Here is the input.
Amino acid sequence: GSPAYRAGLRTFDLITEVRGQPVGTYADLGRLLNENHGETVPVTYLRPTRVAAALGSLGDLYVFESGLAALTPESTGDGLKDRTGMELADLYIADVDSDSPEQRAGLRPGDRIISVDDVEVSNWLMVEQLVQARTGRGHTITWLRNDERMSATIQLQRRSFADQESVSTTRPTLGARNWAPRVPEQTVWRPSLLRYALPSALDETMDVIRFIVVGISQIAKGELSLSTIGGPITVYDVIVQERKKGASYLLWAMAVISINLGLINLLPIPALDGGHLCFLGIEALLRKPVPLRIREVASLFGLVVLVVVMALAVKNDVEKRWNIIAAQAQELVG
Here is the structure.
């Protein structure tokens, strides 16, 4: 088993602290454990226990019980999953509708979705997009259970949904749901909200800046693949996914995207503000303006770099979603 399994951690456990440091996101978990070089660290977690029909006809209830594990990550490995065996639970099935096509096909809670119609998925939003891209046809869904690969072709049931204007629409819907718990944060009284909010916002901003700078430097060094660069379609997917979680998540995503764009704008590339600041610094050192010809050539070079990066981002977006785009185009054509 993995280091996480040997430590007593199980699927759907929610990590809350590592070595006494709070864990709010998967990035926090990665940052805290990446500082570890093989030594054992205490990990606090919450384990959900399902109470069937606790809310009567409204559904089941999950009760979280706290626990403490002694985790010893591998000293070497490529990424958090390789070193610990831990990953996001976004693609893990938490519940399957009884007597649904998914249940009859063998899909069970704890299974991890790998692909839909031979398209590898990286998040639950991609699963939803793929099953809705082709209507009236069966979908081949592949999943993992205890390292065993399973697959089945499932004809999804069509379900009716009503929007805010009570207009009813039907669409194929997966009769299974992923694990996406909502753990309410404890409310803490602050006598001066503004005095607390400003330093906290600054700390959060600095954490995001450090995270983005590390990512850019890893891409520049070749440690991170160029395929991780996303364009407008990726931004749209992130906004849609965070909007489903709530307003606070949406605002956070918009803030991260804004900071990202701001940092990119400060890169020392002509045609960006960072390039202009670079020229101003050179002029301050030389105490004379940079020759116009040099500025023109540098600006042209910077423009070419920007176009190449934007083209690469759009290419990555299209490649990741090509099957979805092709399926939707086929539906439109008929």
Summary: The two ends are 49 Å apart (CA to CA). The domain at 93-178 is CATH 2.30.42.10 (Pdz3 Domain). Residues 109 and 147 are 15 Å apart (CA to CA).
